[in-house]
Design a protein that fits this description.
InterPro entries: DUF3097_C, DUF3097_N. The protein is an alpha/beta fold. Helix content is about 25%, strand content about 20%. The chain has 7 helices and 11 strands.
Amino acid sequence: MRQYSADLTPPWKKPQSVPEVPAEPGLVVEEPGTGFCGAVIRCEAGTVTLEDRFGKHRVFPLEPRGFLLEGRVVTLVRPSSGPARPTRTASGSVAVPGARARVARAGRIYVEGRHDAELVEKVWGDDLRIEGVVVEYLEGVDDLPSIVESFAPGPDARLGVLVDHLVPGSKEWRIAQAVTSEHALVVGHPYIDIWEAVKPASVGIEAWPRVPRGVDWKTGVCRALGWRVAHTGEAWRRILDSVHSYKDLEPQLLGRVEELIDFVTAPA
């Protein structure tokens, strides 16, 4: 006698299987019920803790089909106890193990000074090498229009410029407005110096000091914090060593650097 299954549910109504993904630290997922998107910072029995790019933490249960990974429904599971390979770069991008650096593009990203360049390299260096983008630094932006003209940006050689203290009415703002090439993009952050784009908590301070007008900003900061005034290079090394990923930087800087990378690498 032929046996029939008791399950009379039509195939198209049965829930489709979804992949199980280990909740490794650094994995960026979205909880669709709340729209909260963040990186995994810990996974414990039955729960996972996510941190968004602003440093906010949320704890969610490890439920089947409970998260979105790059737009696809997945089930997060506790990772194995073995050593895990990092899944994200310092900028939060997907890591590409073994990827070779791309031959440098004709396009460039200019930043104001050495400290700016070192900070960009530390957080976005892996991304920049894969994309073939070279970062160079200027000594101030007073001659920016002529520098852009000398570079002669074009469809295959775009130029992106990151400027400190780019706020309406500032000297930097007026200089940036003079750059009119459609193949050059000048953006900036509101901070007087790139030091201030590092979150105070990451450096171990409550806030960046207010420095009176007429006082060199770096000198004033070192004096207010009790750091050696004559050694601003040493102070910068202390600040840079406190930066481990994009989570240690202010959103106003993160967005501008990502914008420049997208602009320089966009198809001609």
